[in-house]
Amino acid sequence: MLNEEEKIITTYFKNNERLSLLPKKEKKKLIILKYIREKYFQEDLEYTEKDINQILKSVYGDFVTLRRDLIDYKFLNRNDDGSSYWL
């Protein structure tokens, strides 16, 4: 039996690969963002904005919103000029 987080992930990720829709409800959105952070990013790496965009494009069409949400909800950090991103 799936727990609540697993149900949300399987609902929004078709075949566990692409995000079909970014949920509007904050609780569901946070679960999706946490999943993306854990699946696609590594703790000890720094990423460029180009790297981030490339990764997120493979996850969801509106990668700009996804990137902004990851930063706004503190799943990703970045320096002030946006040249470096990290967990």
UniProtKB/TrEMBL annotation:
<feature type="domain" description="DUF2087">
    <location>
        <begin position="18"/>
        <end position="87"/>
    </location>
</feature>
<protein>
    <submittedName>
        <fullName>DUF2087 domain-containing protein</fullName>
    </submittedName>
</protein>
<dbReference type="Pfam" id="PF09860">
    <property type="entry name" value="DUF2087"/>
</dbReference>
<dbReference type="InterPro" id="IPR018656">
    <property type="entry name" value="DUF2087"/>
</dbReference>
